[in-house]
Structure formats: C-alpha cells, structure tokens
Design brief:
The protein is α+β, with helices and mostly antiparallel strands and about 350 residues long. The chain has two domains: about 40-190, PDZ domain (Pdz3 Domain), CATH 2.30.42.10; about 195-350, no CATH class. The chain has twelve helices and eleven strands. The protein has helices at about 1-25, 35-70, 90-95, 100-110, 150-160, 215-220, 225-240, 240-265, 270-275, 280-295, 305-315, 330-350; strands spanning about 80, 85-90, 115-120, 135-140, 145, 170-175, 175-185, 185-190, 195, 205, 210-215. The N and C termini lie far apart (about 95 Å). The relative contact order is 0.09. Residues about 245-280 have low confidence and may be disordered.
C-alpha cells in the first residue's frame, strides 16, 4: 500500500511538471544552428575580443611610455632604462588568458617556439633601431636566452643595470637570418602602466604601478585625454603621494589606539581623517604636475580642461565637493587645468623649461 501511494505521488509530480513545462514552452519557430557553425562563431568572437584587448593595450603603451620619459625630472631617483619594446610567447597567453586566446595569438602573430617582439613604440629609440614586430629574440647583450620564457626575458630587461646608459644589444632571427641590433635607451620613471580589465571609469597609482581600466580607455576618446589621466597617476607615484598617505594613516591609527587604551573606545575616526588629510591637495598637485608631463610629451594641452566637463556629465556627483571628499570637484579641476595650461603656454612662449613650479 505504501509503495502504491509513493508511485501515485511520483506520477502526479511528473504530470504537474509536464503540464507546467508545456504551458511555459516557446510557441514560435526555433532556429536550428549546427554545432560546427556555433564553433566557428565562437572562434570569431575570441578573435574579436583578442584584437580589442591588443589594440587597447597598445594604445595605452603608446600614450604612456613618452609620459614616463617626461616624468624623469620628478622621479629622478626612481628612474630606469626604458627600451620601448614588449616580448611574448605562446606560454604567456596560455597562462594569462587561456588556451582559446593562445590559439588566436598563434594565428594572428604566427608564433612558434621561442620569444618574439610583440610591440615597438613608434617614437622611442626602439622604433628607429631596425627592430621589427615578429623578430625572434635569441640573445640579450650577446648572452643566449636558451629556453627562457618571455616573462623571464622581460625580467632580464627590467633588472638590467638601472644606472647604466649603455645601449641594449639584441640578437634576433628574421626570415632565417641572424641579426644583431643596437637599441639606444631612454631614461624613464620605473612605473609599469597596466591595462586593468574593469569596466569602471577609473585609474590608480599604488607607488609602484599605474593602472588604467578598460572603462577609462573607452571614456578617454582622444589620446590627449588618456595622456592627462596617465600623467596624473604617474605624478602621484613620482611625488610620493602613496607613501605619504600610508604614513598619515599610520599616525592616525596610533592616535586611535591611544584613545582606545585610555578610554576603551575604539572608533577608527583619526585613521580615516589622517588618511584623507591631504587627499584633495594631492589630487590637485597630481593634476598640476600631470599636465606638465602631458605637455613635455608633445601632446596638445589647449583643450585638456574639457576632460573634466565630460567627467561631470558622466558622473554628476563629482560636480559638488565637500569637506570629506577625497578629490576636488570637477569645476575646481576644470579651472585649475585651464590656469595651468596658460602657465605652460607662457613658459613655451618665453622658451623656459617645462618644469612644475615649487610651492611657497
């Protein structure tokens, strides 16, 4: 009897599910697509995604590298040789992006075994050295690379003597021929500029790196606008703002701890206040110095202030500031950039060096 009741219950459940699915099912014609066609379209979309990532990355590097060179007067103690090249291999794409994108990279770049030139900045010395994208790198300063990966070779370049102005010697293979090319170096701030895979319109500096989101890449329609953003973040690092804020936050934490010991009250108020004590001033200082870097890099700065009007349209909340705001308002930033632009143009007119002025 119990078994019969259980069978009846299951039958009723199956009937109910059948009725529900029949009532909710699609009523129009369904397009039939073969698995082969879906696979082909999937591959095409991977190619499109890869191409967009590559183009955004190359645009960012093309804009950023001259700004790092221009920043040397600000970061002189934190400068290193810059070669204006990037390397890659198959393993890089497999490790960072996965096998699907590795296949696309192999197809687009014709990668085989070894380390290859992926990018050459067009206006830095590497762009005039005779080096070509697709050259296979065999040796650096006559030292063979053996079985090293692209990541390991880039680290060799990064760790090369920072105090040396010696040109870089690269031995490459091109169309079956072995060539040794000499690349003069440029001095530049040692802050890698990284494309961050986030849609938010944002950028950051952490003292060692500069991060620019893909949302910001889309928002900064002109290279001059992107240069303004990158220059601002380079200035943060070069002026030591991150380290200063860490120190201020630590002092605030000590005060909070002292209050907690003496009163038993744990608030964290002074940590927050100390961390933000000079935040707006640091942002204004980075805007000021960053525009100088943009000008020193050869970008037009006449309409730079318009960036902040566009930002106000995108984020109306930034139009008004306040005591606890970490950034100046967009009207303040617009007007400050206009004033700095006039200062720079006057220096150009007088033939003076484009170096930011020190405060009183």
């Amino acid at each position: 009897m119990v078994a019969n009741r259980e069978h009846l219950r299951l039958a009723l459940v199956a009937l109910a599910v059948s009725m529900l699915t029949a009532a909710c099912g699609p009523t129009l014609k369904q397009v039939t697509i073969s698995e082969e066609t879906i696979r082909a379209e999937r591959e095409r979309q991977f190619e499109l995604a890869f191409t967009m990532m590559r183009d955004r990355h190359e645009r960012l590097q093309t804009v950023a590298l001259p700004l790092l060179v221009a920043g040397v007067p600000l970061c002189e103690d934190d400068a290193k040789p810059l070669y204006g090249i990037e390397l890659h291999d198959r393993a890089f794409y497999r490790r960072v992006l996965g096998e699907e994108f590795e296949r696309v990279a192999v197809k687009q770049y014709g990668l085989a075994d070894g380390v290859y030139i992926r990018y050459i900045h067009p206006t830095l010395p590497a762009g005039r050295s005779g080096l070509r994208i697709g050259d296979r790198v065999l040796a650096i300063d006559e030292v063979p690379l053996a079985q090293k990966s692209a990541t390991e070779v880039m680290k060799i370049l990064w760790d090369r003597d920072h105090s040396s102005d010696m040109p870089l010697s690269l031995t490459v293979e091109r169309e079956g021929q072995r060539l040794t090319l000499t690349i003069p170096i440029s001095r530049a701030c040692r802050y890698p500029v990284i494309l961050v895979n986030q849609d938010a319109v944002n950028a950051y500096a952490d003292g060692d790196n500069v991060g620019i989101t893909k949302g910001m890449i889309r928002f900064a329609e002109r290279d001059e606008e992107l240069a303004l953003v990158v220059g601002h973040e380079i200035a943060h690092n070069a002026l030591g703002h991150v380290q200063k804020k860490i120190g201020q936050t630590l002092l605030g934490t000590i005060v909070d701890l002292a209050i907690a010991i003496t009163t038993g009250v744990q608030s964290g108020i002074f940590q927050g206040l100390a961390g933000n004590a000079y935040s707006q001033a640091y942002e204004a200082e980075a805007d000021y110095a960053g525009l100088y870097l943009v000008a020193r890099s050869g970008y037009a700065i006449t309409d730079s202030s318009q960036f902040w009007r566009r930002m106000a349209i995108e984020h109306p909340g930034s139009i008004t500031g306040g005591f606890l705001a970490t950034h100046p308002s967009t009207p303040e930033r617009f007007l400050a950039i206009e004033q700095t632009s006039r200062e720079i143009e006057e220096k150009r007119r007088q033939g003076l060096p484009l170096i930011p002025e020190r405060g009183p």
